[in-house]
Structure formats: C-alpha cells, structure tokens
C-alpha cells in the first residue's frame, strides 16, 4: 500500500505521507510556506489551511450545531475562544487521512507578497529579520543546574532549530519574571542578524503573545528624514512621517556640513546629537500616529548618503570632504539601536544600515539599486534620485555605474525666493499660456486649477520643488526666458507679469499683496539656482554616459522624495535629464525609501544588496575633469550643445 498523496496549493508542492501525519509536518518537509508562531501547539492559528479536495481527520461534535465536526479538541478549544472559520483547519492539528489537496490561504503564508503602494508595483517577499516565536521552556531543576536563558536557548534550538541565541541586558533583566509569569511558556521576538547570523532576543512576552511587532524604514536625507513604520508580519505600512533634518542649521548641503565639522571642533558631535534627537522624536510621533507603543518597534533600517551615514554613526565626516574621499566603512552595519542613542524604540531594538557604494555614493544609492534593479534591465536605464544631493545610476544587465552630484537644495524649494517644502498651500503645478503669458497653477491640497471657479480663495504660501521646475520650464516654453536663462523685460515679453527687479526681471505667478498676502514670483536668482542644480544633475548623468560610451539612454526613472511629482516633460524642457522618448520617462517615487522598506522586510534582500553594491562601479564626479565642461554646457536651457530630438515631437 502506498501512502496518501498530499498536494499543496498554490505552490503545487506534493509528496506522500503516512496516514496521521500532521499537515504542518508535511508542509515543512516539502518546504511549503506555512506559517507557525506557536510551534504546532494550536495556539497561534497562523497555520490555517483549507482542504479543497479530500478530507482530513474527523473529530468530535461542534458545540455550535451538534453536527459532526472536522475539528479535534485543540481546534475545538481554539474555535470556542476565538472562532475558526468554516472550512478552515489548523494545519498543526489536522492529519492526513487519504489523498488530499490542501490550500494555504495568503494569510497563512509567511513569505506572502505585499504589493507596494507606489505606481510601480513591486512585490516584497516577506522574510523579516525579527519574528515572533512561541516556545515552551524547561523548568529549572536543582539537579541539572542551568540558567533560564540557557534553557530558553535550548527550547529555541529543539523546537525551531535555532542556534547562536543571545539576549542583551534589557531582555535578561526581565526574562526570569516573564518565564514564570507565562508558566514557562513564552513568546520571543527574535532577531536574526543578516551579517553574522547571530540571533538576538529583542523582547520576551509571557504566554502566547498576540501583539504585533514593527520596524522602521528610514531614509535619512540631508534635508528631510522620512520614515515608514511597517508591520513586520506582512510589510504593510502602518504610518509614515517625515521631519526636516535639524542639521540644516549647520549647513544646507553636505559639503557645508563637512566644512562645519572642519571649522568647528566638536561640530560633528553636535550634528550627530541633532540628527539622533530628530530620529527619536520622529519615532515617538510615528508610533503615536499608528497607535502603538514604542517598545513594539523592534528594528530600524537606514539608508543615507555617506555624510549622513557618518554623522549618524558618530564618525567625523572630514575625510569625505577631501580626495580620495575615504569612508570609515562602506560595509553594511548591524548594531543595537541604543549604541546610536536611538532610545525611543524597544530597549533592545536593532539597527541595520545599508552599505555605501564608495566615496560620495552612499547607502541611499544602494537602496535605489535594490528597489529599481538596474542590473536586471535589458535596456539602458538612467535613474536619478533627486534631492539635495542627486544619486545617479546608469546601467543594464552588463554593467551598472553610479555617481552622486551636488545639486544643492533648490529642487526641494530651498534657495528659491518664494520656495517652501511640499506642504498644503504650495504651488506644485504651473502652466503658462504661450499666447497671453498668463499662468494658472495648482496648489498642494486642492484638486482644481487656479483659474477654475472651484478653486476658491485658499491660502497660497509659496512654491515647492516640482512647482519651480514646472514654472521655469513653462516660462521657457512661453518665451519669457531665453536659452541662457534670462527673464525678458516687460517690453520684450509683452506682459506686465514680467516686472523689473533691480537690474533683472521677475515673473509674477501670484500676487495677493493687496490682501496682505505674499507676492509669489520667479526671480532671476531663482532661475540661476535651478540652472546650477539642473546642470549638476545633467553633468553627473553625462559623465556616466561617457563612461558607458553611449550618447543616449533608453529609459529614465525619476526617483526621490519628490521625484514622483516631477513632470517628465518639464524636466526634459529644462534639461535636467538627457533626451529620451517621453513615454520612457517615469517616476518611481521615493526609491531609496522603498529600498529601505525592502531591506526591512527581507533578510535575503539585506544579503543581496551586498552583492549588488559590489557590482556597481563608482564614478567620482568631484575629480572628473569632464564634469566641469558638462556642467557649463548644461547651464543653457535645455542645453548648449546636446540635441533634444524628443522635445521637438
Ligand atoms: Fe500555531 Fe497551528 S502552528 S496554531
């Protein structure tokens, strides 16, 4: 006689098992993704399955209907307390009785895939570093002396096959009470280090713990710090929040912060303290927003540029200010959060920092590579992550190059006369009628254009990064601006919206001075700031194209916290990016932030990134002689020499 055939769907994995084999056991032997937190004790209900053909063991009588039930006594108890859905069985209790097809529903799959929120859908395969595990620990025995932690480690080894278990002090101090309170049954939040494979107990709870655990994915930028709080079971974002980087008071861009550290003894210590305090505040806020307690935050993953990286870990960034731009370390780091004074999450929380590529190309670029995967692309893709410092990647399956370029904060609305952060009241879209030279615009927080009767009289406070890019590009298209970037006079342009401002001209977008409101205009100084920023961006991209030996790219991806809001057409009219078919220019949103989320949700991704980083060739813009030449030529709008055939069509 042959054993019954067991087939799991949707994986299609199959095998023969003796009658009486628990489904969870069969699933484990076949490598089927079936969750379990309690180790098969019928407590966690994570292992639920649904037979779609054939039957499991039958047991008992249901309390509800008095009918013959499929459930055994453990399942019955579970159903009485919490309710088990009809047609569902606990995989650890139901046993194989004959040939059967078993469906594993999505919520019972550990590695269940989560769809990203952004426009470009990409699945994150869940494989988090921190998981909850339920164990039964041996009680102490005078004749076999061993510590509570050693017996907990033995239980983790015997029940879950986990070795190399350690517990930091915050866990040790509570372990004995929790073990006794749980009557030697506890749930452990266990963190597996992707770098060393060590297991750290982050927290321990009496009995079976129903609570959720979370992690933070933090994109630590020069201007803003953006965080996503993610549920570590399914990767879902529970809350998102952002704050300004308080280091701005020490210098707006990276190099001015490096100079601050050079000029002021102890300056780097001040900047480190400031950014850590801001991350602590952000942690408190985001936990409050999601309605969780800070001790539910088990870990944080950081992506950042090299200067932010060094200031986060408390290393003086002075070496990054001078050739050969040596990093203290470019490897990924895993360490306890409290070593970084990040003390608003769980006391034993862990931090993972993505690796830097080299020199000026940081973990943020590595995160973009992780999320956008240029090294898997058939055609040549240019990825620009626009921020105070632009990270630029160019590549395809054969090769990936990366550089960073100091664009300055103009694209984020700083250094712009009416500039502001993207927030309600900021002008974010602009159109200028080429015939009348009259503008219309949209502000953040309103769906209608300013010439729409529904627009009303909202408070208009300034112009944000995407708004200024559109305004300058529209001014060029409407003939208010020549290719050198000079704003025409009222006479030259034939509109009174161009006003004289000293020896230059400004273009008025919105004037509410009569009502005591602001005058929002694009000044010659604003145009200059945008020209400098876009030239730096373009020159970086061109440098990579030279290195690659190409004069055009197939696709362009705009990334960055506000990359999602930049209109591809306007970016190209401005000459921020090289020429490409407009349909092949897309926005990826905050790709670095997405990369951080992927790393938060997946230990495998943390390992992959090390390989990806090794395959990327860094190009240093600061010492490349061609950079200056590209920069000067890119000052014209769109460009002094490079053709833009796709703009004509
Ligand atoms: Fe926990 Fe089945 S494994 S209830």
Structural domain count? 5
- What is the CATH architecture annotation of the largest domain? 2-Layer Sandwich
Helix percent band? 25-40%
Bound molecules: FE2/S2 (inorganic) cluster
Could you give a short account of the major beta sheet?
Answer: 6 strands, mixed
CATH topology tier name of the largest domain? Nucleotidyltransferase, domain 5
Extended strand count: 29
End-to-end gap: 73 Å
The gross shape turns out to be: elongated
| Mean pLDDT across all amino acids | 89
Protein name: ASKHA domain-containing protein
InterPro entries: 2Fe-2S_ferredoxin-like_sf, 2Fe-2S_ferredoxin-type, Beta-grasp_dom_sf, Corrinoid_activation_enz, Raco-like_middle, Raco-like_middle_sf, RACo_C, RACo_linker
Domain 2Fe-2S ferredoxin-type: 4-108
Pfam families: RACo_C_ter (PF14574), RACo_linker (PF17650), Raco_middle (PF17651)
Topology of this protein?
Elements: E1 5-9, E2 14-16, H1 23-30, E3 48-53, H2 73-82, E4 89-90, E5 100-103, E6 113-115, E7 123-125, E8 130-136, H3 148-160, E9 165-166, H4 169-181, E10 185-192, E11 199-206, E12 214-220, E13 224-231, E14 237-244, H5 254-263, H6 267-290, E15 297-304, H7 306-313, E16 333-336, E17 350-353, H8 363-372, E18 381-385, E19 390-396, E20 399-405, E21 426-432, E22 439-443, E23 462-463, H9 465-477, H10 490-493, E24 498-501, E25 504-511, E26 519-522, H11 524-548, E27 555-559, H12 568-574, E28 585-589, H13 591-601, H14 603-615, E29 616-618, H15 625-633, H16 645-648
Parallel strand pairs: 1-5, 9-11, 12-15, 15-17, 18-27, 20-29, 21-23, 27-28
Antiparallel strand pairs: 1-2, 3-4, 3-5, 6-7, 8-10, 10-11, 12-13, 13-14, 16-17, 18-19, 19-20, 21-22, 24-25, 25-26
The structure holds FE2/S2 (inorganic) cluster.
FE2/S2 (inorganic) cluster binds next to loops.
């Amino acid at each position: 006689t042959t054993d019954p055939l067991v087939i799991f769907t949707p994986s299609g994995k199959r095998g023969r098992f003796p009658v009486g084999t628990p489904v969870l056991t069969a699933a484990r032997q076949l490598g089927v993704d079936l969750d379990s937190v309690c180790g098969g004790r019928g407590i966690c209900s994570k292992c639920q399955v649904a037979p779609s053909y054939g039957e499991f063991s039958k047991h008992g009588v249901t309390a509800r209907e008095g009918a013959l039930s499929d459930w055994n006594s453990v399942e019955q108890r579970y159903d009485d307390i919490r309710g088990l859905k009809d047609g569902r069985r606990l995989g650890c209790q139901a046993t194989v009785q004959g040939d059967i097809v078993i469906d594993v529903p999505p919520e019972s799959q550990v590695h269940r895939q989560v769809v990203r929120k952004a426009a470009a859908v990409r699945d994150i395969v869940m494989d988090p570093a921190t998981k909850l595990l339920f164990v039964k620990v041996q009680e102490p025995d005078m004749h076999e002396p061993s510590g509570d932690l050693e017996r907990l480690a033995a239980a983790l080894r015997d029940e879950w096959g986990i070795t190399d278990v350690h517990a930091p002090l915050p866990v040790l101090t509570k372990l004995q009470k929790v073990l006794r309170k749980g009557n030697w049954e506890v749930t452990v939040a266990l963190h597996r280090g992707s770098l060393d494979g060590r297991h750290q107990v982050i927290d321990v709870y009496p009995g079976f713990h129903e609570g959720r655990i979370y992690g933070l994915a933090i994109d630590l930028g020069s201007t803003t710090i953006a965080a996503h709080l993610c549920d570590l079971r399914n990767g879902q974002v529970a809350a998102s929040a952002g704050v300004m980087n308080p280091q701005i008071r020490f210098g707006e861009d990276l190099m001015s912060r490096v100079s601050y550290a050079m000029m002021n003894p102890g300056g780097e210590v001040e900047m480190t303290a400031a950014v850590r305090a801001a991350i602590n505040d952000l942690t408190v806020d985001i936990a409050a927003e999601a309605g969780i307690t800070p001790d539910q935050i088990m870990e944080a993953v950081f992506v950042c540029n090299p200067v932010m990286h060094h200031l986060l870990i408390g290393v003086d960034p002075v070496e990054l200010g001078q050739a050969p731009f040596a990093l203290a370390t470019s490897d990924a780091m895993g360490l306890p959060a409290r070593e970084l004074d990040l003390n608003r999450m769980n006391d034993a929380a862990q931090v993972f920092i993505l690796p830097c590529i080299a020199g000026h190309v940081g973990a943020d670029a590595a995160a973009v590579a992780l999320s956008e995967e240029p090294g898997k692309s058939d055609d040549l893709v240019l990825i620009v992550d626009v921020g105070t410092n632009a990270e630029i990647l160019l590549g395809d399956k054969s090769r990936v190059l990366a550089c960073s370029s100091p664009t300055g904060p103009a694209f984020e609305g700083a250094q712009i006369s009416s500039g502001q952060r993207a927030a309600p009241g900021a002008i974010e879209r602009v159109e200028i009628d080429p015939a009348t030279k009259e503008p219309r615009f949209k502000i953040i927080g309103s769906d209608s254009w300013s010439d729409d009767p529904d627009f009303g009289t909202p408070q208009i406070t300034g112009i944000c990064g995407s708004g200024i890019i559109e305004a300058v590009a529209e001014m060029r298209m409407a003939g208010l601006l020549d290719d050198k970037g000079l704003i025409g006079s009222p006479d030259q342009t034939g509109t009174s919206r161009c006003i004289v401002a000293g020896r230059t001209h400004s273009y008025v977008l919105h004037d509410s001075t009569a009502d005591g409101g602001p005058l929002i205009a694009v000044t010659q100084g604003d145009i200059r700031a945008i020209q400098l920023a876009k030239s730096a961006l373009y020159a970086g991209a061109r440098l990579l194209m030279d290195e690659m030996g190409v004069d055009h790219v197939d696709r362009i991806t705009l990334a960055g916290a506000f990359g999602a809001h930049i209109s591809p057409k306007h970016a190209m009219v401005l000459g921020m990016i090289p020429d490409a078919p407009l349909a092949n220019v897309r926005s990826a949103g905050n790709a670095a932030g997405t990369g951080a989320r992927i790393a938060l949700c997946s230990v495998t991704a943390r390992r992959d990134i090390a390989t990806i980083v090794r395959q990327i060739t860094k190009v240093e813009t600061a010492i490349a002689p061609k950079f200056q030449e590209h920069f000067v030529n890119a000052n014209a709008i769109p460009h002094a020499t490079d053709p833009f055939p796709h703009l004509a069509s």
